Amino acid sequence: MKKLINAPADVVDDALRGMAAAHPDLRIDPEHRIVFRGDAPVAGKVGLVSGGGSGHEPMHGGFVGMGMLDAACAGEVFTSPVPDQVVAATQGVDAGAGVLHIVKNYTGDVMNFEMAAELVAAESGTEVVSVVTDDDVAVQDSLYTAGRRGVGVTVLVEKLAGAAAEQGRPLAEVAEVARRVNGQGRSMGMALTSCTVPAAGKPTFDLPENEMELGVGIHGEPGRRRVPVAPAREVAEMLLEPVLADLDFTGGDGVLAFVNGLGGTPLLELYVVYAEVQAVLAKAGVPVARSLVGSYMTSLEMAGCSITLLKVDDELIRLWDAPVRTPALRWGV
Amino acid sequence: MTALDTDALGAWVREFARAVTEHRDELTELDSAIGDADHGTNMDRGMTAAVAALDATPPADAAALLKTVAMTMISKVGGTSGPLYGTFFLRMSGAVGDGSPAAFAAAFRAGVEGVVARGKAEPGDKTLLDALLPAADALTEAVGAGQGLDTALRAAADAAAKGRDSVTPLVARKGRASYLGERSAGHVDPGAASAVLLVEAAATTLARS
Q: Cβ distance A171 to B200 under 8 Å?
């Protein structure tokens, strides 16, 4: 294993120290491993808290700031944060208007956020509403599985609900925006290589040189199917086909198209993919209203990408264009 | 009848921690195949911290001991194993009773029921419950039939191992392994594997306490 680290056990703490040094406008609680917006709690504003395993940077700590999250809890690599962290984050951002938890649908994340919400309810009167993201069409949705995973749409939920909260909307409305975005977004990913969890020291799965994994998760969970490596044009089609089949994206005001790198794929290649995505969508009669291209929700050094489509309307476009000032997304300010 | 006092339960917890450390890489290996390659490291981090917490503040009684282990697992581990093992020890702590084998069997069952409530998994979903539920049944049955604790715990450990092996051919329906669909079949479930270590540790320590 070759990694730019000091020791596998120190990765998360060392990275948080780096974030604190690089972004003095954020406030980092090293003990609880929480990244706070510098001015949290913001008077009169609904607080937005998210979190999850580390190894997906910039998600979630890189999305803390004006117009997005108020706090993000960092777990161990690929392991959800613990309830104590979520409780401390929730109390730290509560300005009296309530707190929204944005939780990706993984058994551990859901369980730990649920326990935290129970503890907060028992300890203080803070009103907490949770929205769970589950946009990954690679996973069959069934009563008998853990359900679809929360992937790319989580970034969009954090931006759009964050903008709604910044406008001073009440908790119920902010939660409604988050739920609507999750309901109207679908994603699918693929990997060219595995990732290596620092503590494990070797790649999570073996992928032969001439194969790629379709429907891969963001924790190195293998996907559902292995296929021969193909040109970006065919990869874009393979990823978009199940996304377009799952939800009707035609008509209306178009989509926000999000091509996300998984950590080890250069932006050059992500733009190659984006060009193909545009072409597929044009052929399918799906107009693109906004786009996002870059590595925003990664899986350590995994090479590969995910594609997320979100059905948008005037309101969502306005929320998308609203100013945001975080380490990873920053415009209009 | 053996009294399951603070020392006895402390020995159980320490033996479980030792076994988890010994099998850390193996558990992580199992998790690489069908999960996210962290079960061994997470369990080791949690149980090592639990033993350290017991050393730092020796618990007043059996209930306090189990509660310390529970709170450490919940606050140090994260993922699914933290809340699930934490809930197991927490529910046990609330049900230790008089320390008799019957009370231990009842407390163990209360712990397993806590795991059911927290994880919402069912038998056959291919989770740690597939080792814990048969172990609880075997324990209750043996103790109820008046067998000694050593015999009862041996039966429980064997039932746990059998339960673990019985779900290996199955398709996972809970947790990260469920994302694999058919490809999870044929792999040992890492959670069931660590649960066997827990019951096996009870058989090797509590039986001779």
A: no
One domain, residues A226 and A261: yes
For residue B3, what pLDDT is reported? 60
Residues of A in contact with B114 (CB under 8 A): none
Question: Residue B1 has what pLDDT?
Answer: 40
* Contact: A79, B183; criterion CB under 8 Å: no
Here the CATH number for the domain that contains residue A195 is 3.30.1180.20
- Do the strands A47-54 and A71-77 form a parallel or antiparallel pair, or are they unpaired? parallel
Radius of gyration of chain B measured on its C-alpha atoms: 16
Instruction: Inform me whether the pLDDT recorded for B33 exceeds 90.
Output: no
**Any domain includes A7:** no
Domain region containing A79: 12-184
Give the class (CATH, top level) of B6-208.
mainly alpha
Residues A78 and A179 occupy one common structural domain = yes
HSE at residue B143, side-chain half, CA atoms within 13 A, is: 22
B206 vs A57, A156, B102, CA distance in Å?
A: 45, 52, 13
Chain A: which residues have CB within 8 Å of chain B?
A: 53, 75-84, 106-108, 111-112, 115, 138-140, 144-146, 149, 197, 199-200, 204-205, 217, 219-222, 224
Is position A318 within any domain? no
Q: Percent of chain B beyond pLDDT 70?
A: 98
In this structure, are A55 and A193 located in the same domain?
no
Do A170 and A191 have their domain in common?
no
Which of A1, A104, A107 has the highest number of chain B CBs within 10 A, making it the mutation to test binding with B?
Answer: A107
- Provide the number of structural domains found in chain A: 2
* DSSP-assigned letter for residue A298: -
Its ipTM equals 0.76
| A interface test, pick of B24, B38, B71 with most A CB neighbours within 10 Å | B38
